[in-house]
Input
Amino acid sequence: MQIATTVAEAKHITRAWKREGQTIGLVPTMGYLHEGHASLIERARRENDRVVVSVFLNPIQFAPTEDLDRYPRDFDRDCKLCEEIGADLVFHPDPAEMYHDPHAYVNIDLLSDTMDGAARPIHFKGVCTVVSKLFNITQPDNAYFGQKDAQQLAIVKKFVEDLNFDVKVNGCPIVREPDGLAKSSRNTYLSPEERAAAPVLFRAVQRGREIIAPNMKASELEAQMKAVLAEEPLADTEYVTAVDALTMQPVETIDRNVLVAMAVRIGTTRLIDNFSYELPRA
Amino acid sequence: MQIATTVAEAKHITRAWKREGQTIGLVPTMGYLHEGHASLIERARRENDRVVVSVFLNPIQFAPTEDLDRYPRDFDRDCKLCEEIGADLVFHPDPAEMYHDPHAYVNIDLLSDTMDGAARPIHFKGVCTVVSKLFNITQPDNAYFGQKDAQQLAIVKKFVEDLNFDVKVNGCPIVREPDGLAKSSRNTYLSPEERAAAPVLFRAVQRGREIIAPNMKASELEAQMKAVLAEEPLADTEYVTAVDALTMQPVETIDRNVLVAMAVRIGTTRLIDNFSYELPRA
Output
């Protein structure tokens, strides 16, 4: 497995693969890899000749008030995991290598106006920009993103389509702890007491899955899920929302394919979870 | 010479060339080609195995008040010119093929805040977005832009660098009529009387070139160029500005490499012209 820390090295390695006609799968990550990332890398390994994992804690998707400084890091452990799964290249640039006096950016309207985009106004501009850069640097045939970050996945799919990037964007299922908590690098922030409280998000997802039905009022669905979250004293709900699966705009009734997503603070840690619902065909 | 009207066709043709290891030169145009465009296509022909000319009147770089509807078109004549010079592919999509419910975009700050960006607030967002799309669709090794649109050229170079596009951006000299008027599709808007007045822009460029010198006050340079423009009763000067060649920000003194650019209305027709000045090395 090779490790590249400069854009030039990463381009050089991936361009040689392209010239040989090899397919490339990219798994963009911010590091501190867990089983969720591992599932993405494993799938990339099965579906491509070459696998690139980017490990880059992208500063421009964090607001100054957010957790960039305390975000966990363990690059040696990340490399071991990538090597075990059989990645060919880990791309690990530092922020100065990725951003020299940057002025250009990629962004998206509508899909970024709701949920995490409303709560984190610069977040998706930073995501769209870094993912575009990673696509241009590594020229993947396939890219893999977790469905835990469902709005991010919808946004990446849409900007790839709108800007004609030659990349297939693949969403992969949420990987969970035995008690249902979605795997996340941010779970390390939780105290033991908070960690015990955190599966309340999954219980709200389960409640939502049980009761969702065609033509249900979204407000009724959201209220029942919020009631589950309210049973946990450590949980402070930021949003629970049913949105159109493509546009990320709130729906009034469950009359199309939807994403039902939530953000909840457990102590100071902001956790997200979601499920997708496809309307049965008539 | 092939003509593609869909993104899928253009990708299919250019991807086959890439697989064969052929280099591709792209000349993005809005059509109604003149000798300025011809010089770009000729240079692309000399420097690449394959030449793509895009002919696409990009609606998203025009404000509703601007001249999209009256912009001149003659696709048959454009194709003849491309074929004569030896282009391999003309990409001529319609707006609906390029934009299906678009929400993602590419944009740039700082460089787009001045001059044409100040006068035309959505213009460079539309340019960055369509050029990014054309790069992704045709995957050129080289792209060719005229120095007449000098701010556009600086912006494209910067977004290519910032977003790591694998394209070399080449600026090509302004092509002029015998009386000095820079070639432009918009020159067709001019009445005979206005056409006779229009070379005043070039006379202002010439005056600027004669008097510019290291450590000159930019205000003095601009005033002398504006005085030339003021001699022509049909000319209404929008701006004459000396800016840093890289950042497009106004300078106070000529103490670095600069672009000196102007926009002038002749009747209702907005014309632009410019020259670049490199500071002599100490």
Observations:
- The two ends of chain A are 50 Å apart (CA to CA).
